[in-house]
Design a protein that fits this description.
CRAL/TRIO_N_dom_sf, Similar to S.cerevisiae protein SEC14 (Phosphatidylinositol/phosphatidylcholine transfer protein), 2 domains, Helicase, Ruva Protein, domain 3, five-stranded mixed β-sheet, CRAL/TRIO_N_dom, CRAL-TRIO_dom_sf, 14 helices, alpha/beta, Phosphatidylinositol Transfer Protein Sec14p
């Protein structure tokens, strides 16, 4: 009898998988190996990734200067009194378009137009996702919890036990999009800044985890169109916010869903994704001290000894709250 497959590197493409048994790259993708090495080396010495603040090539710096000037001339940004996150934000758009200044400028202006359309500045101060507990009860839990070894916020999307019909009986697609927009804007304006101060080096993206335990194809097909729209909106308007993405507890049939999802993602986003089965802890521990990893997902963090089992989902612990 053959041994059941427990990790998914070969199913999803060479650059995507890190076999969850031994922590080595499952293929020839240089991006996957580079990011894996970054996670392991960050315990000793942090190295700023290329294309981020503090590690720009001459051409990348020229592209940053050019887009800054063009956007200032268009009235889209101010170079005299910029918000602290402006340069990091511009670099995200540049990375998303391979430092093509014209394409990055157009992307940035379209994103700003979309944010004005949904009135994001108002939502940022006034929006409350009051249905959060009900959405969580029906299997969609989304929360930040502490940081990885590189100092990035850990952003967990837990879809285990998802009942899509019940989720959308207590909320709407527009409310989900608004919640994500406010959540990510808050990360841009506050979370990364707090992590940067705490770490002593620049932090400008997330360590994202998607738990798909028990997620069947029926639930996926129910969510398919809404998920595609959400991913498109987030990628177009909040690019490059996930430094790493780990999909955990992926069942074997997840390969069918992934064939669809992969087609919705830019190649540079797909290259950041590792897909693991139930034996994901050896991979996660390359990037996260298990004291910072929720106990109900196999870590050693319980937030406090007298808290409920899932306290990690509600405490929002991290440098941004210290």
């Amino acid at each position: 009898m053959s041994t059941p497959r427990r990790s998914f590197a070969n199913i999803f493409g060479d650059a995507l998988g890190v076999p969850s048994g031994d922590g080595r790259s499952g293929g020839s993708g240089r991006s996957s190996r580079r990011n894996s090495d970054q996670g392991k080396s960050s315990l000793q010495t942090y190295v700023t990734p290329p294309g981020h603040q503090g590690n720009l090539s001459v051409d990348q710096q020229k592209a940053l200067d050019a887009i800054s000037k063009q956007l200032e001339e268009a009235g889209a940004i101010s170079l005299r009194n910029p918000p602290h996150y402006q340069e990091a934000q511009l670099l995200r758009f540049l990375r998303a378009r391979n430092f093509d200044v014209e394409a990055s400028r157009e992307m940035y202006l379209r994103a700003e137009e979309w944010k004005k359309k949904i009135n994001l500045d108002h939502l940022y101060s006034e929006f409350r996702f009051t249905e959060r507990d009900d959405v969580a009860k029906f299997g969609w839990r989304m929360y930040f919890h502490k940081t990885d070894t590189a100092g990035r916020p850990i952003f967990i999307q837990d879809l285990s036990g998802l009942d899509a019909e019940k989720v959308f009986s207590v909320t709407t697609p527009d409310r989900i999009i608004q919640n994500f927009a406010v959540t990510l804007e808050h990360a841009v304006r506050r979370r990364y800044y707090a992590c940067t101060k705490a770490q002593g080096h620049n932090v400008d993206d997330n360590f994202m985890v998607l738990n798909v335990q028990g997620l069947g194809l029926g639930q996926f097909w129910t969510m398919k169109n809404k998920l595609q729209e959400l991913l498109s909106i987030l990628d177009n308007n909040f690019p490059e916010l996930s430094g790493r993405v780990h999909i955990i507890n992926a069942p074997f049939i997840f390969s069918t869903a992934w064939a669809c999802i992969k087609g919705w993602l830019p190649a540079h986003t797909a290259e950041k994704i590792n897909i693991c089965g139930a034996d994901y802890l050896p991979i996660i521990s390359q990037y996260v001290n298990l004291e910072n990893w929720p106990a109900h997902l196999g870590g050693r963090c319980k937030c406090s000894h007298d808290s409920p089992q899932h306290a990690c989902e509600t405490k929002d612990f991290g440098p941004w709250n210290q």
